[in-house]
Amino acid sequence: MQRTLLFLFLSGFHVFGQPPGAAAIQRYFEEGERALAANRYAEAEKAYIKLRELDPGTAEIHAKLGVIYFQQGKFAQAVPVLRQALKLKPTLPNAGVLLAMSLSEIGRYGEALPGLEKGFQRSTDPALKRMAGLQLQRVYTALQRDSKAVEVALELSRLYPDDPEVLYHAGRLFGNFAYLAMKKLTDVAPDSVWRHQAAGEAHESQGEYDLALMDYRNVLARDPGRPNIHYRLGRVLLSQSRQRESTAEKLAGALAEFEQELQRDPTNANAAYEAAEINRKSAEFGKAREFFEIALKGDSDFQEAQVGMSRALLALDKPDLALPHLRKAISLNPEDEVPYYQLSQVYRKLGNEPEQRKALAEFQRLRVRKARRQQAAGKVLPEREVTRQEVDSEPNP
At CA 167, angle to CA 165 and CA 172, rounded to 5? Predict the structure, then answer.
C-alpha cells in the first residue's frame, strides 16, 4: 500500500492560532514540515510530539502525528492520537478513514469496519478511496464475509483496471473465493454431478487426465444427458493422445465422444470442429468437410473452423472454394499468421504467384512478430477452448 499518499490527505495544516509559546510552536511546526517533505519521519515525529506538548488542544496536530506514525508503520501508536484528534474535532477530514486503516493494520477488524465502509463509499479522492477499498477487502476477508470482499474487489477492479496492486489482491481473493466455494460444494454435495464436474475441470486444467476422465464419467453416470460432458471427455482423450503411445486408440475414443456430443446437441460448434480436425489429420477430408460445415453453420465467426475448412477443401483440390474461408478467417483475426500461410498455398495451387508471394511475406512478418511477443510476455492461451490451427510444415523460401 502506498502510505506516502496519506500525506496529501492531511497536508492542509498550518500554524494554529497564537497560544502561549507561539514562537516555539512555529519553530517546531516548520521543523516538522521540512522533515516530512524530505520523508524524514523520525525527525517529523519528534517535532510533532513537541508541538502536541505545547498545544494539546489542537486536533490537527494530533491528526498529523497520526499520519506520521502511519507512515512509519507504527499503527498501534497512530490509533490513540487519531482518536484524540477526532475527539477534539469530529469533522476533521479523512482522519476517521486513517484511524480505520490503522485499526485494520493491527488486526482490530471489527472496529475498523465502519470507518472503512464509510471511507470507501463516500470518499471522492481516488487515492484515499483506493486505499480504503484495499483495507476493506482485507477486513471483510478476515471477518469471513467473503461475498462482501468480492464485491469490493469487483468495484476496485472497475475503478482502477490497470492498477497492479488492485489486480494482485483481486486475483488472490477471487482464487480463494473459488476455492472456498468448491470446498463447500464438496462438503454439502460430495457425490453430486456438480462436484464431479468441478473436480473433472480442475483435474483437466492441471493435466491430471486419468482423474478428469473418472470424474467426467461419474457425471454421465448420474446425468447421461448433461451438456458438454462428452465434449470434455473428448478433449481429455485428445490431450492424452499427444502424450501416449496408444495415439490411435485415444483419437478414436475422442472422435466417438465428440460425435456423441453432437448427437445430444447438433449445434455444438466446438465438438464439430474437433471431430473435423481428427478426420482432417487422418486424411478423411470428405468427413472433415462435413464436420467443418456443421461447426460453421453454428458459428460463422469461428476463425479456427474457417481455416480448417480451407485446409480440407485444398486437400480435396478445391482451392477456389477454400479462398473465401481464408479471407473470412483473416478478417476475424488479422494478427494470426496461419491463414496467411494457407492463403499462400491456395494461391500456389491457383497459379497466382504474385499473391502467393504477398501472402507468404505477410505470414513471415506476423510469425516473427508473434515470436518476439511470446518471448517478451509469455504465451497467451486462446480464448476459444479448441485445438489451434498450426502450420504443418515450413514454407518454401
Answer: 100
Rounded to 5 degrees, what are φ and ψ at 143?
-85, 5
pLDDT digits (tens, 9 = 90+) for 335-367: 999 999 999 999 999 999 999 999 999 999 999
Grid coordinates representing 323 are: 479462398
CA separation for the pair 66, 76 (Å, rounded): 10
**Cβ contact 144:177 at 8 Å:** no
- Each residue's pLDDT tens digit, 112-158: 999 999 999 998 889 889 999 999 999 999 998 988 999 999 999 99
Whether the CB-CB separation of 280 and 311 falls below 8 Å is answered with: yes
Q: How far apart are CA 274 and CA 280, in angstroms?
A: 10
pTM of the model: 0.64
For residue 230, give every residue at least 6 positions away whose Cβ sits within 8 Å of its Cβ, in sequence order, or none. Answer: 220, 257, 258, 260, 261, 264, 271
Q: Is 391 helix (H, G, I), strand (E, B) or coil?
A: coil
For residue 332 the three cell numbers come to 476475424
SS3 300: coil
Q: Which residues make Cβ contacts (< 8 Å) with residue 336, sequence separation at least 6?
A: 303, 329, 330, 366
Question: Superfamily assignment of 3-185 in CATH?
Answer: Tetratricopeptide repeat domain (1.25.40.10)
HSE of 121, CA atoms in CB hemisphere, 13 A: 7
